[in-house]
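User: These chains co-purify. Model them together.
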Amino acid sequence: MIKDITIGQYFPGESVIHRLDPRTKILLTIFYVVVLFAIQTMWGFLAAAVYMLSIILLSGISFKTVLKSVKPLAFIIVFTAVFNMIYAGGTPIFAEVNWLKWLTYDGVRRAAFMAIRIILLVMGTSFMTYTTSPIMLTGAMESLLSPLKLVKAPVHELSMMMTIALRFIPTLVDETDKIMNAQKARGADFETGNIFRRAKALIPILVPLLISAFRRAEELADAMECRCYNGGDGRTKYKIYHFALRDLWAMLVSLLLLAAVILLNVLL
Amino acid sequence: MSILEAKNLSFTYSEEDGKGEEVLHDVSLSVEEGSFVAILGHNGCGKSTLAKHFNGILLPCGGEVYAIGMSTSEEKNIPKLRKNVGMVFQNPDNQIIATVVEEDVAFALENLGVPHDEMEKRVSEALDIVDMLAFRKHAPHLLSGGQKQRVAIAGIIAMRPRVLILDEPTAMLDPKGRKEVMHALHRLNRQEGITVLLITHYMDEAVQADRVVVMNEGKVLLDDTPAEVFQNIGLLQSVALDVPQSAELMYQLRHEDVKVPLSVLTDQECVEVLADLLEGKYGDYRNQKFNT
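Assistant: Joint model of the two components:
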């Protein structure tokens, strides 16, 4: 049961979207977010929706999964939309009905914009993690942030920490399972009682887990030293990312989206 | 020339109050290039501590340690030592760094700054030697214990070390996994000419070595071929070590004045000796009176 925990929700696949360079995907996600905030017309959102839709179709990930990513945010979306509607001001739709004065054309427009914007935003950003494994993302981050090494930012160290953390998630999950079973066998009770009682019951799990994590860390450090680990200097990379033609295409299509959005903003 | 050498080595783990128990007392040991040496001993006898001295993870408190002809006490030798004296530990889970098998095997090569093309070649080579080539794209946490440990070994031999030190590499494995790992080790020793120093408390693994060093309380107790070492059954049992069952059987028979050879270690040898015994090769045992 505890093994089902997934981090970053990655769906392995072989589609074009999956095979894009992870650096391209990170950059284009940022780009896409910027474009979303630049949109000022309904037609602009339509363009963005078409862009998103083609990504979904190309990736082979089902619409159901995509909708699931938006679901937890339903409350925030409604909340933002309502507030935008109330505080927009402008011409009321039903000027003669007194208690509906707050409902304005501008308000409805802004509420719709906000809702669509958030939905497209969540879909787009979750698609990055859907189609890129966490380890690829870590590698890509290191590569993208490498210019920061010039100002002595610990880019390599951060990415090494991320890699090790990702590597040890399944190991520590297994261990938690074992410790829980061991404590249950000794009569520990994790299921009943109020929230404080249950939180307290977790201590006999956390303490052994922490101690074992320290022990593992020490052994891992020895093992890394034995394999000549000496920090990031003078290291070569096994996994090399190559920009391919498909990355160029992806960028081109994204630029087209931006062009379309700007054009629609100006024309309408 | 010996490839690993400890001269009058002593070592104390320093505690917070500055005192500590001496773990190694005046240990002298040398290992020849290309040999397969097993270090045998009870828990806490100092065998792991000794092993960690050979690539400079621990530095001697007294005496000196040389590996591939260089002193481990000199800081500038350490990178070269680490590359040439590879070390594998007990728990494979705590040695694997990456989330994909081939990336883990490449870890040491990345650290050494090996160019990318050369790296691919060496990763395939290393995985091939330990018979794990088919798993190169797998996630390590989904492999069995024996497979994980072989990945860990591949990660070391990708550096092309001259010596491989293994600290109880089979202690956490099931019998199948142990067999796989031992098979890989013998193959490395025989085909690749890598010197193997195997720390273990399994007798059947020690029996397969060229030489067995028995340690007790931080000292070398016995140091000889397996056949010679396992004749000292009384001594081994006194330091809480088992002997191979075949050796013990011969020892018991000898005790009863049956003139069987004592240098019998493996099941196969034991069967042959017993067959000879039944044919009367070792005298007529039937008329003998047995005490037990």
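Residues 246-285 of chain B form one domain.
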